[in-house]
Amino acid sequence: MSPVIKEFRLPDLGEGLTESEIVVWHVAVGDTVELNQVIADVETAKAVVELPSPYAGVVAKLHEQPGTVVEVGSPIVSFDVPGSGVPSGDSPDSSADKADDDEPPAKREPNLVGYGAAVEKTGRPTRRARRGAASTVPARPADASTADDAAVTAEAPQTSVPEEAPLERPRSTPPVRKLARDLGIDLPAVNGTGPQGLITREDVLAAQQKSAQEESAQSGTGQSGTGQQGADRGVPASIAAGERETRTPIKGVRKHTAAAMVASAFTAPHVTEFLTIDVTASMDLLARLKSSRAFADVRITPLALVAKALCIALDRNPTLNSRWDDASQEIVQHHYVNLGIAAATPRGLMVPNIKDAQALGLRELADALKGLTETARAGKTSPADLSGGTISITNVGVFGIDAGTPILNPGEAAILAMGSVRKMPWEYQDEIALRQVMTLSLSFDHRLVDGEQGSRFLADIGTILSDPGMVLTMV
């Protein structure tokens, strides 16, 4: 009997995943293996799994190297299997019957969980149809005979979905697929920018931001055809009609923002720290700047001072300016600051960002903040301004709020909430005095930032705002 080459394709390991990573090979080319011998460890999103050999023979080729992510159904190893050919003197039919009927069950291929991707004569796997997929069995003509019925019935179990049918999910990792589901993003419509077209977290977020912009533009130009009489009087149609409830469809920016916040809250382990500081010196500085000729035409606000203090503190605490990349399993540290500013708009919360904020002086930063918030409230923020943020600030103080626990903008390591500036009794030069006080709230991703790093960053911002002259000791 002549030997033949048998390919072993990566099986579906029973977890509904589309890919696994080769962790280590336990065999090498030329090794003799037995049936069910462990030949490799592969890692799924849930565990490291031992992969048994489906053949007894000699390893002829290892198709993939350790560390490679392989799609289910792709060949990973080939075996030189002896005794698989047709013995001399026997017909092919009798040999096949003997292999099927006489071979003991213990000598056959192992029953791998979910390995049901049948291989056709071309050596390519036939995709399994999804549950609920339409049948491709041809309809029987009205005058078909009973023999025709029998033929159709016999052929039905062998029917497979054509190779070009879009049944397989696009290449992405389980966390990215979950993020897409949470954001309502259709993965087949997303262009992957990762290796070999892999769809990354950033691709999904970019698609979400683009969709939000498109829906915002549509909602801004659309008009409702109901309740016109009430609308003419400036009264919502539901109230004008005497209704006890108003129902607003969840769509556009609000829908995507809600999904993004849910994804962030349940993906990144949030930690929030608080610091209450005396900002009287900063408020005095603002008053002097407003009367200064150099800042006469610039609107300087407490937010501008906090933004500048944050950029300076980031230079001393760079871990706060990083992101967790699930797709590549890397921590990415940014050497620039795209500063996001949370802005409440009629269409919902938006977080546009100022590009390269670390390179701007206080005057330029104040101008950028003014332009950014005005553009956001007018609904004219571009997708480019909504993407690529590295850290954010939310100013809850404008609503009279002292502190909060802000949720991270997806893909960022930290967000700072600045509270209202209030006059309060405060210890000053060993006496109680009426001072201007603010509370800062810093939320950060504990995967990227530990308690010490977050505390030092928050303390640096507090030091600058308490005594702006301390900047000279930091830069």
Q: How does this model look, in words?
A:
The protein contains 12 helices and 19 strands. It is an alpha+beta fold and 475 residues long. It is 29% helix and 21% strand. The protein folds into 3 domains: 1-106, Beta Barrel (OB fold (Dihydrolipoamide Acetyltransferase, E2P)), CATH 2.40.50.100; 171-219 and 249-267, Dihydrolipoamide Transferase (Irregular); 271-473, Chloramphenicol Acetyltransferase. It is elongated and about 95 Å long. Helix 9 (302-316) crosses helix 10.
List keywords for this structure.
single chain; alpha+beta; OB fold (Dihydrolipoamide Acetyltransferase, E2P); Dihydrolipoamide Transferase; Chloramphenicol Acetyltransferase; seven-stranded mixed β-sheet; four-stranded antiparallel β-sheet; 19 strands; 29% helix; 21% strand; elongated
In short:
This protein is of the alpha+beta class and 475 residues long.
What is the structural class?
A: alpha+beta
The termini sit apart by 80 Å
How much helical structure, as a percent, in the residues? 25-40%
> What is the CATH third-level topology name of the largest domain?
Chloramphenicol Acetyltransferase
For this structure, what is the CATH class of the largest domain?
Alpha Beta
Biggest sheet details: 7 strands, mixed
> CATH H level of the largest domain: which superfamily?
Chloramphenicol acetyltransferase-like domain
Q: Total domains, how many? A: 3
